[in-house]
Amino acid sequence: MTKLNLIAGEWLAGESEIENLNPSDVTDLVGIFAQASHSQLQATLAKARSAQAEWANFGLERKQAVLMNIGNELMSRAEELGRLLSREEGKPLVEGKGEIYRAGQFFTYYAAECLRQIGENADSVRDGVEIDVRREPVGVVAIISPWNFPTATASWKIAPALCYGNAVVWKPANSTPASAVALTEIIERQDIPTGLFSLVMGSGSSIGQRLVESPIVNAISFTGSVPVGKGIAAAAIENLTKVQMEMGSKNALAVMDDADLDLAVTLALGGAFGGTGQKCTASSRLIVHDFVHDAFVEKLVAGAKAIKVGHALHDDIQMGPVVSNEQLQENLAYVDLGKSEGAELACGGARLEMPHEGFYMSPGIFVNSGNEMRINREEMFAPLASVIRVGSYDEALAVVNDTNFGLTSGIVTQSLARSTHFRRNARTGVVTVNLPTAGTDYHVPFGGRGDSSYGPREQGKAAAEFYTTVKTAYISAGAPK
User: Fold this and answer.
1) Mean pLDDT of 15-27
2) What is the topology classification, in CATH, of domain 2-247+443-473?
3) 246 included as an active-site residue
């Protein structure tokens, strides 16, 4: 049975369909999913505008109940929906369950934020005039989310959008449509106006492009690649549409000469290979002080070789497949590129054969690499990491900052002075000390610098900057009688 799109409040078939295969076992058909037409997109955008006006007038507690119900259902169904997510995306089951639970927490957090929408007031410089400053919904929000965190990333956009009174038109990645339908079914059942929330599955070049070009859309929140992000920004400027984008990364973990090596290796392995390396916060550059370099590499390679790769739904595996054959071929091409650039492949980086046909590869580690190499300049989005040898803390910091990106960075050190200096001078939006570069909290701002991010920050209270617009009112009560 084909899974449908939610168009203007109705579940409808599309103009075409796609098959969704399990990357752990391509003989397993997850489902068939409708692709929305251009006319359906226009219809749902028109309905979203009127639904948004109705939703904006809902009482705060009514909105809070909606978001709380969504969050609680996600958390209570983390086992079931996590299995579905892992089945179609390929991350280990424990990570799939964790993602669903975290998605629920986004909704319950913003349920509470519904009641914290407190404005500001001031006296005017003019006698007898008071000023009221408050935030109002931005309007109709287009959300374009990625496949690597199909439920969590979408949720940290959808939850604040609804919290602050907006309508949402969501175009998820075509690689993970089952998770999108599951979340949409939960949201659609709530006490919300018809057409307030829409699901328009389709290709980025077709539905995505029409969505970002629409003059009905007041704001666009996007997570994906730099080239696509630049295309969205170019389209959005025609209508002066507000834009928020999280794009590529080339995150670095700096391991200093005083580091606890066992901790450093654990952080590097988790940061580089968690989620099969398909994270925007993955530790793809490991910048290691010469004093500990050889010992670190020995432990790191041993740890990478010990990672058990297998079917995402099997309990005893640590890394699943990559999401698709296309992604696998891109990954293998980067392995060849790294070797052609002169880096040494110390382990892994090869396609793996399993009893069930899927898109598996072994965790790969490059050594003797330089920061000028393309494998250290471009986001690979693969279970691949490169070790870069440095001779001092100052050199390590310089290499960390020598990138067009700036999402996350981390340092492993026992020095308070170094960790403090690093926190203040690493040119990234997120900095970690003795923690992996991957893994962030939902109640604080998230975002980067350079090619990694554009526009206001996501998550926490910072989300209000994007999902609302500020109105300043001047009030004269007149002279008392």
Assistant:
1) 96
2) Aldehyde Dehydrogenase; Chain A, domain 1 (3.40.605)
3) yes
